[in-house]
């Protein structure tokens, strides 16, 4: 920090004097002639408070972070990692952009891990934290082949082979299309590109809900998943507790009809002016960053330990509003009304009959999912509440386990300051080892029921090869 103003020097020296004299004491005679014992600590208390207040005014400014305006590939590159940009065309014509951090080790092919963000976000949401606690970089440091997805309609996947984002038809998609088209296309593309038969999937929020849809609609995909790690997984929305949403949910039909009448089908993208506005609102001072974080926590839930770093708030806000469609948002309200269930988009009785053969939307039967799943949830999550997670756990039949972090809210799973120690270390322990062996069909250890025993056999064989010549020489000498 460089001090450029005389007032800054003055208050810094004043603070040093206060610290130096804090243990001293003295006796003085006041104007009435009465001796009064006092501590220099109490005398300088007001000085120190004024120094702190002035220091806060002078030094409250947040350090400027250029990553606020970076694309995810630019963030990855600026952190010193290699990056690739891939484009995938879905069966219904949407062009998705996914980002890859290829494994840096040259010791052989590495296991693919795919990360999928939640609603209104992008691949950048995984990159908000510093590298030492951002999951993609932690995985890359362990030599995994990291792939990060982007849902259709967000800033990086806003293309189509025939439609234009300015056309209403472009935005007519819900969770169902993301799960039915996007995720199968991405999973198959990654496996084809890497030559692997399976990958590990890590999803957050809607990144889990759309995974469930994909596994139900495309049962063959279940055998292509080593492990699915679900972070704050969205399914039932019956117990959503955010006050503003509960107030607006009964008005969802009216709001949706109005937005369609005025030609608004895209939802909440802060591109351009919005980025500059949010940066000026949340990115100038620590005080403003804390207020913006309070607004976010009003939706995601509290955390008693204030588990966030104010310096990343501008980057966090910049990566929250990356756009989606009105039907995607409306489906939250629909599932809230539906209670404890996980249902498809509700088009209204007439169109539901044409699409589902019933006046009501179809339900996704989660017990049909055979991919292995491990669930992490938060005790303070106001979006995916503990009650809704409890319902989900009763539906999944191939559960490998679940962990609830009592103090975590919905955002802590990607933005928390303690997320590495409390969550990501456990997540990475669930994944297959990064080093894999390719035969085009099987992934490493697929036929080994006891990997540790298999490793022991290799170790024993190596020891035998190493010590056998010595054993022969000793035996010959003895003879």
TrEMBL record:
Q: Does the keyword Lipid metabolism apply?
A: yes
Provide the GO MF annotations for this entry: lipase activity
Which keywords belong to this entry?
Glycoprotein, Hydrolase, Lipid degradation, Lipid metabolism, Signal
Taken from the record, one Pfam family name reads Abhydro_lipase
| InterPro entries for this protein | AB_hydrolase_fold, AB_hydrolase_lipase
- Does the UniProt entry include the keyword Lipid metabolism? yes
Q: Which family does it belong to?
A: Belongs to the AB hydrolase superfamily. Lipase family.
Protein name according to UniProt? Partial AB-hydrolase lipase domain-containing protein
What organism is this sequence from?
Daphnia pulex
